[in-house]
Amino acid sequence: MPRFLMTDPSHYAVSYRINPWMRPEAWDAGGAGLSRRAAAASQSLARILSGLGAAIHWVGAAEGLPDLVFPANAAVVLDGRVLLARFRCPERRGEEPVFRRAFERLAAQGLVAEIVTLPDGCFQEGAGDAIWDAGRRLFWTGWGPRSDRVASDHVAATFGRPVVPLELATERFYHLDTCFCPLAGGEILYYPPAFSADALAAIRERVNPGDLIEADEHEAAAFCVNAISLRRELVMASAPASLRAKLAARGYRLRETELAPFILSGGAAFCMTLRLDHASVPKETAYDRQPDARALA
Question: What is the mean pLDDT of residues 115-125?
Fold first, then answer.
């Protein structure tokens, strides 16, 4: 069964600003209504994933850690091995022991096998900056605003898989998952202005031109590139009609949900989850062989 980590949003708020999307004043103006909408949005995302055959493992809320709701930044996970993140911004460092305890509980349940830490002084912000591409059997890693360039080498050493480092060119797209999404059919959905010239060359060197799907500024600002690819299903925030048309033309079905309270903090569907069961060599199961199976890529 596909497995995701999610976090109870009870203590979620936009109370500080560590990226250009964060709007504490908008959160304050929204009052309790935004908290209720955030709780409903989180449950909606969980229901969509559950409906697609996934199991959800929850991390409890922690007062004073509003961005705990974005577990994609907690770690990189492959083959049961967990590489714990180290956050650059002081506001998020309190999340590190909370997530460590969560992974220790998962290890006790046999859901992960090993927990690995980064060398001192190395910043790497989890799957937000290390995205597993199941079709190409490699990691695409973001570096610059949050994760260090050398962190890509530690990802490669930890998991023994190829890594393609991509320099992020703007604070606006501060994690790779905000602007880059490998799809199950081999395509890459991405927002080119988020990348340096060298990063764009690295992408175009490894991906056939026909498999590159460019998001425009409006689509990227709607946080629709921050999506979860589940074979031909794409789970994402409410999408502009232009993006729906691009993806439908490729045979993808969109599962949209309203995530506006989380977009106020600079995150959406991918940020709100962490995939726990990625495997470098996928194992076929009876579930996979069903003609209408919705197994994950």
Answer: 98
Indicate if the pLDDT at residue 154 is higher than 90: yes
- DSSP annotation of 47 reads H
How are beta strands 75-78 and 81-84 bridged, if at all? antiparallel
Residues with a catalytic annotation lie at 175, 271
Asked whether residue 297 is domain-assigned, the answer is no
pTM of the model: 0.94
Residue 296 inside a domain? The answer is: no
Token pair 């074979």: residue: 231
Tell me the residue range of the domain where 218 lies. 3-289
Residue 73: CB atoms within 10 Å: 25
**d(C-alpha 246, C-alpha 141), whole Å:** 25
The CATH number given to whatever domain includes residue 172 is: 3.75.10.10
- pLDDT tens, position by position, 274-285: 999 999 987 654
What integer pLDDT is reported at residue 289 of this predicted model?
A: 41
Amino acid at 226: N
